[in-house]
Each structure stands twice: as C-alpha cells, then as structure tokens.
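INTERNAL TRANSFER SHEET
From: sequence group
To: structure group
Subject: Ornithine carbamoyltransferase

Please process the attached sequence and return the structure record in the designated field. Keep the field labels unchanged so the import script can parse them.
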Amino acid sequence: MLKPIKLANKNFLSSLDTSREELVNILEIAKAFKNKDLNIKLKDNVLGLIFDKSSTRTRVSFQVAMSRLGGNTVDLIPNTSQIGRGEPIRDTARVLSRYCDVLAIRTYKQSDLEEYAKWSSKPVINALTDLEHPCQALADYMTIKEELLDFKNVVLTFIGDGNNVANSLILCGALLGVEVRIACPKGYEPNPLVIKKAYQIYKNKDLLRITNDPINAVKGANVLYTDVWSSMGEENQKEEKDKDFIGFTIDKNLVRNADKDAIILHCLPAYRAKEITDEVFESKRSVIFDQAENRMHAQQALLSCLLS
Ligand code: CP
Ligand code: NVA
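Return from structure group:
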C-alpha cells in the first residue's frame, strides 16, 4: 500500500533534500491525493507561512493543502509582524517553532532560509528563494509524469533566466534522470554549484546541457518551460533584461522546432509577449493550469512526508 516515506532530512530547503526514492514517493503520493485515492490526516498540525516576497499560488496552495490534511495555517505578514522591524531570524525561528509544526518560508537569500532552519526546532520548507524553488519543481515533474506517463526519454527544455526555477528543475531532473536543457542568454546561466551538483548525480553527463541557442535546445524536446525574465527583487533590472532576453520568447516558431506533441509549462505569473506569446500560452499544448493545480497536490504530499 502506498504510504508517505518520512524524509530523512528534517527540512526541504533544496531539491536535493530528498533522495531519488523519497522524491518518487512524493510524486506518487501527490498523484494519489489528486485522484482522491489517499486519505491522510495531520489533524491539529499548524503550518506557519512567512512570505518576504509576493505570492498567489504558493501561499494559497499551501493553505488549502494543509486544510485538506485537517490542519491549519498561520500567515505571518512580515510588514505587520516584528519580522519587518528587524527581529533576528534566530529569535523568530525559535518562537514560531514553539507554536507551529512546520514553517514554509519565501525570502531572498538561501542563507536566510538556512538560518531559519538552523534555529527552528520544526521542519522548514523553501517556498522560494533567489537560489531555488523546490516546491515548484515537485509540481512540474508531477505534471510531466501525468502528461508523458514516464520520465524515460523525456527532454525538458527551459528557455529563460537560469534562476531559482531553473536551478530546481536541474536538481530534480538529475535525481529523476530526466534530460534537461537550459537555453539562456550569455551571463544568465544557472548557478555553477547547482550545475556541478547535478553533474555529480547524473549517471550520463549528456543529460544536462546549458546553451545560449534556444532553437537548437528545443530540437526534439517534449517539454518547453519558461519563467519570467525579471524575478522578484530584480525590478530595477527589468529594462536591461528585456533587451538581453530578446530571442528567448517561447513563440510559435520555437514550438515548431520541438517535438510535435511537446507540452508547454510556465510556473506563473506570466508576462505575455515577453517570455511567452499569448498564442502559445493559450494553446492546446499548454498544461500551465494543470501545473498550477498540481502545486497543491505536491505540497500536500510534501507535508505528509515531512510530518507523518
Ligand atoms: N509559481 C509560484 O510560485 O507562484 P506564486 O509566486 O504566485 O506563489
Ligand atoms: N523566478 C521567479 C519565479 C516566480 C514564481 C521569481 O523568483 O520571481
């Protein structure tokens, strides 16, 4: 019988905080939740949410996931709590982990997230940092499996900024043995440490390619994925990045160069006519809203594996 495997690591700060076996289990549990084949209750458990950056999907999907598990959430708005007034992370973490059973944190620096985890007596989840977005990657690979049934022979091409979303796609892809290609403008390559770690995991080094040529990168790809060009915290670089990313839009032409049945993913929010055209976004190939729905199932599974 399918059961959540308790994660060996206390926290989920990175896509590499699960083993391959644990990751596959999370994806199976998520699918079972989606199909209403599994009933796990974490009654009276409380998830604390701290979001230093905006969020629609991550915040709401965590709230609903926790409520489906029979637990509750507390959303700590930094501006109206002492966090915004500069109370040290180590104090906030020690206090909140006396009240809550798990914390999900969205912030800028990965080192701040790690500081929360260090001082929290309860598990800490990365709800997005500048370095990684591992909860997003869970939903992404869940969606890929749902659409393509198997990870074998899947080619995932990410076109855009080699940022948090791309970093987690690479690490999760390495654990699952999925071929990942990243096409980005020069200077926007993924984090070198992430690339290094991924190569250490991949048995076949050809399964990860970083390139500046989007047309070439989508040849034979089964999944085309993009994200915003300017991430949260980069608002002042928008003008420069809009210029640097010319030629990196997922449009009809790029899609034509991919596998004829390729699916389109986007973590959202999306800026039409920038990283993706409206035509492709709204096309039959787009499973972007299934992907968004899967955030909730994947996080419900993650919470089950961290807490049960
Ligand atoms: N994809 C994602 O994390 O969306 P939000 O910023 O709305 O949470
Ligand atoms: N790279 C984007 C992802 C948003 C979900 C950001 O960090 O803003």
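Handover comment: The pocket of norvaline (ligand 2) is lined by residues 128, 163-165, 227-228, 231-232, 267 (CB under 6 Å). The domain at 136-291 is CATH 3.40.50.1370 (Rossmann fold).
Transfer complete.
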